[in-house]
Amino acid sequence: MSVEKKKRIRLSPEERKVDILNHTARIVAESGVSSVTMESVSKEVGISKSLMYSYYPTTTELLRALYSREMRKLRKLQNQAALEASTLEQLVRKVTNVYLNYIEKNGLLINRLQSEPSVHELGGPSYFGKEEAAMFLAEIISKSFNIPKDITIPVVDISFGLPDAAGRYLEEKGADKQFIEDITVTMILGSISAIKDEFDFRFKAI
User: Fold this and answer.
1) Is the whole-model pTM more than 0.70?
2) What angle in degrees, to the nearest 10, is found between the helix axes of 130-145 and 149-159?
3) Contact between residue 88 and residue 101 where contact means Cβ atoms under 8 Å apart
4) Of 64, 81, 67, 66, which is closest to residue 133 (Cα–Cα)?
5) CA distances from 152 to 121, 147, 155, 166 (A)
6) How far is CA 173 from the centre of its chain?
7) In the predicted model, what is the mean pLDDT of the chain?
8) Whether the Cβ atoms of residue 124 and residue 115 lie closer than 8 Å to each other
9) What pLDDT band is residue 32 in, cutting at 50, 70 and 90?
10) HEC string for the chain
11) CB 202 within 8 A of CB 151
């Protein structure tokens, strides 16, 4: 009795790239970065190694592409959450909540990818492509509290490290996520409030 051969699905180049990255993510999450080879991924995807090389010439490029995709996905979710906010507290909470939910779900994948030096140099989740997001928040704070952007930009820039620290604590200590979220939001809002009070005090007309 003959065994029917599995029919290969023809995908567009972009769809094929997504498929390759999805399978690579699964391998990394299940077995670690060391298990990612062009042979293992091409076999998993069901394509030839030559076709695999045409999309990603090296495993380094493959892993960097996967990490970049995940970080863009995180930033997109955070931007969407920020646009839904109507107060500063909502903005900070929604963006922090998205970050912690993402780390809770994908922390193992991100940590394993970052163990690869070529990926690590791209920056952690809080720092990957943060310039645009930081500027967006700095402008909101500047307009809302009448504080110059040259002050709000460094405040926001430094505050971006708090969700990253919260995410690591959540992973390492297995703490209650809502509790960690509340603390993080309070710390970020507290720093913004303190800067506003300091600015108002120093530049108050006499």
Assistant:
1) yes
2) 130
3) no
4) 81
5) 27, 7, 5, 22
6) 20
7) 88
8) no
9) very high
10) CCCCCCCCCCCCHHHHHHHHHHHHHHHHHHHCHHHCCHHHHHHHHCCCHHHHHHHCCCHHHHHHHHHHHHHHHHHHHHHHHHHCCCCHHHHHHHHHHHHHHHHHHHHHHHHHHHCCHHHHCCCCCCCCCHHHHHHHHHHHHHHHHCCCHHHHHHHHHHHCHHHHHHHHHHHHHCCCHHHHHHHHHHHHHHHHHHHHHHHHHHCCCC
11) no
Separation between Cα atoms, residue 135 and residue 150, nearest integer Å: 11
Does the pLDDT value for residue 1 go beyond 50?
no
Report how far apart, in Å, the C-alpha atoms of 116 and of each of 63, 123, 132 are: 8, 12, 26
Q: Quick one: average pLDDT of 57-83?
A: 92
**What does the block give as tokens for 180?**
């960690």
Convert the pLDDT of each residue in 78-87 to its tens digit: 889 988 999 9
State the amino acid at position 192 in one-letter form. I
Rounded-to-integer distance, Cα 41 and Cα 51, Å: 11
